[in-house]
Amino acid sequence: MSEQLTLSAETRERAGKGASRAVRREGRVPAVVYGNREEPLAIHVEEKALMKMLNTGHFMNSVVMVEVAGGVTARTLPKDVQFHPVTDRPLHVDFLRISEHSKVHVNVPIVFIDEEKSRGIKRGGVLNAVRHELELVCDAAEIPDEIEISLKGLNIGDSLHISAVTLPKGVESAITDRDFTIATIVPSSGAVMEAEDAAAEAEAPADEVPATDAARGDEAEDEPAQEG
Length: 228
Known about the structure:
With 228 residues, the protein is of the alpha+beta class. The chain has 2 domains: 94 residues, CATH 2.40.240.10; 87 residues, RNA Polymerase Alpha Subunit, Chain A, domain 2 (Beta Complex), CATH 2.170.120. It has 5 helices and 13 strands. It has a 6-stranded mixed barrel. A hairpin with a 2-residue loop joins strand 2 and strand 3.
């Protein structure tokens, strides 16, 4: 289960681009807390503390308790982080208010296991991950850190679909209208080239005579027979 994070914040008195730039110059990141039928709350958080959480790798699927100066605490789920296109510094964060046992939509990372038990990979095949995350619906208090998916028994040409994945109790796929593909086992590029070369050789006529040999045969026919 994803751990609960705590992030200290202060309210923003002013909005707009100028105010946001001023906040960033002080090492803070503008943010907003919204949803749950309450008024949006404009805040700013410490950039270093935010970056530490972002670097955990599971910030976007963790419950974040936003503690605002003055005694206000909001249970939230991060919904969006905007980054600077050049420096990659966070520019703004959106937090969605949730109740303790809200049903939430989250994107949870996939971890593929049992590669050594895949027949296709043993034969030189390669894992082609179609998806790296699963969009799931679950209780806000039971968000998984990751979903492990076994490759055991998969051969070259096999596909792994969501119907073959056992999700944790109380967790469901947010996509229910199709049995989508998660991964396939494909031949390596070297194996494909070898197969193409073999196919080309098999298609060549068995009695085909190389041009050089044919030329030598023609020359031999034109030469006069030597007298004994």
